[in-house]
Fold this protein.
Amino acid sequence: MHYIETSYMTTHLDRLLFSQGGQCFFCRKPLPKAVASVEHIVASANGGTSDDDNCVACCKALNHLLGSKSIKEKLQIVLNQRGNFQCPGNVCAPAATAPSTITQKAAPKPAPTLGNGASAPIDLVLADLKKRGASRPRKVSTLASTIKALLKQQQRTNTDAEVTGLIAELQNRGKATITDTKVTYKLG
Ligand SMILES: [Zn+2]
């Protein structure tokens, strides 16, 4: 198969990207042209042509990794990802969405909320305090360690900040009043 490159036609890479819907051939994520390159399925070094039927668009990092490996080795690399192919370097994604994903992951844990159908931590704390009756912690420090132990028991990851937040929530709800180091309760 031959094509004639003329000045008004798009480049080889442009055409491959267009026919692949702007996605990487391997991982199917949006592939910005800046990181895209033409991968020869049968490597040029192994006699592969630059015809469209021997070429795909993928990111430069993967192209470099595949290099002039044999078709068998390339297939092995693809199959080893078990249908969940990720390009090396994770560059095959629009620049606009990539940083926000990273920011979300790095962001601190949000305030305690309902998750996975379980009770919110504040409800767990209130239920536990009610159950304790007269033996409720009377000092802030004891209340903090009680909450910490309770969250741990529920196999929730907890931080000192979350414990402090829960004590503040108890006060906001008027369930606990703190005077110096002492706590009194109005659990109702
Ligand atoms: Zn990719």
